[in-house]
Design goal:
It is a single chain. The chain is of the alpha+beta class and 67 residues long. 24% of the residues lie in helices and 39% in strands. The chain contains one helix and four strands, in the order βββαβ. The chain has a four-stranded mixed sheet with strand order 3-2-1-4, with helices on one face. The termini are far apart.
Length: 67
């Protein structure tokens, strides 16, 4: 199962991909920023997907914080 996790609450913006399978792999980015999460989030998602060597169509689950 490949999971994308997003967090834009509080003073940081984070994106992470857990790539499951024979070799589990976690790629994550976090940037401290009080504002402008919406502008930073999608480039971060693109970067962690590229690092995990998967495409968005290969994701099984997307998780996001609320708050």
């Amino acid at each position: 199962m490949n999971i994308l996790a997003l967090d834009t609450s509080m003073g940081a913006c984070s994106a992470a991909v857990l790539r499951a399978g024979d070799a589990r792999r976690l790629e994550a980015l976090q940037v401290e920023m009080p504002r402008r999460h919406a502008e930073a989030l999608m480039p971060m998602v693109d970067e962690v997907l590229a690092e995990a060597e998967i495409g968005a169509s290969e994701l099984d689950l997307i998780a996001a914080t609320v708050g």
